[in-house]
Design goal:
This protein is an alpha+beta fold and about 240 residues long. The chain is about 20% helix and about 40% strand. Strands 2, 3, 4, 5, 6, 7, 8 and 9 form an 8-stranded antiparallel β-sheet that branches. Strands 1-10-11-12 form a 4-stranded antiparallel β-sheet. The longest helix has 14 residues.
Length: about 240
């Protein structure tokens, strides 16, 4: 019997399920066009957990030009439609938001992204991951939209490790690749794979320009894939 530990898939399943069940959400904005400040206000106005609560508190202080805690920083680039919150304690956590204008001039694509590092390595937690929403300019509503519906493959680079864990029958750890091949390992080999080889994806939103970047980390090294926005969907840059 295999005890599966599909860590990354569980993280994204949590995010996707949360937003798939959401209804269209009405936004209140000043003027006729939303700014990144409007989107951030809406995102963190009703914090329902400790993580969002920390960001909400910091954001309110930032707007009132009050000093933040020593662990926190916020960057707001209104011109380019970008916000980044960072927190440095036992982990280095980044939360960022941005939006892309759609070619139909009737919608905006909004992204909310979070990732964490610990000791220089990616450390994905409960609240890490990315989600997308489609904003309707006329109705002033936003609703969840799947990454694949805008051309993104969030699992690019994860050729192994999407299924991994411990096989109690064989008394060995294992990883299963996309092609179905299974590799069995001792505990020491597993620990080394977890620390230095296991692929983990994080994402980077553009502060300037429109490119979206996927970084696949193995230990402290990483490879990047860039996706280009054409106003309708993303395509991978060659």
């Amino acid at each position: 019997m295999k005890t599966k530990a599909t860590f990354l898939l569980l993280t994204f399943a949590f995010v996707c399920c949360a937003f798939a069940s959401a209804q269209k959400m009405k936004m209140k904005i000043k003027g006729t066009r939303p700014t990144i400040t409007d989107f951030v206000n809406f995102e963190f106005q009703d914090a329902e957990d400790e993580f969002y609560g920390l960001i909400s508190d910091a954001w309110e202080k930032f707007k009132r030009k009050q000093p933040l805690s020593m662990e926190e920083t916020i960057v707001l680039d209104s011109k380019n439609g970008y916000m980044r919150y960072e927190r440095n304690d036992e982990r280095h956590t980044t939360v960022e938001m941005c939006y892309w204008n759609c070619a139909d001039k009737k919608h905006k694509l909004l992204a909310v992204n979070a990732y964490s590092f610990e000791d220089g390595r990616v450390c994905l937690g409960q609240f890490d991951g990315i989600s997308f929403r489609l904003y309707d300019n006329a109705r002033r509503t936003q609703e969840p939209i799947a990454a694949e519906d805008v051309g993104l493959d969030l699992y690019t680079g994860l050729d192994e490790g999407q299924e991994s864990g411990y096989d109690a029958d064989k008394k060995m750890f294992y990883i299963k690749k996309d092609d179905g091949a299974v590799r069995y390992m001792t505990r020491d080999e597993w620990d080394d794979w977890e620390k230095n080889v296991r692929p983990l994806n994080i994402y980077h939103l553009p502060r300037k320009g429109t490119d979206f970047v996927t970084s696949t980390y193995r230990g402290t090294s990483h490879t990047d894939v860039t996706w280009q926005w054409d106003g309708t969907s993303f395509s991978m840059k060659k």
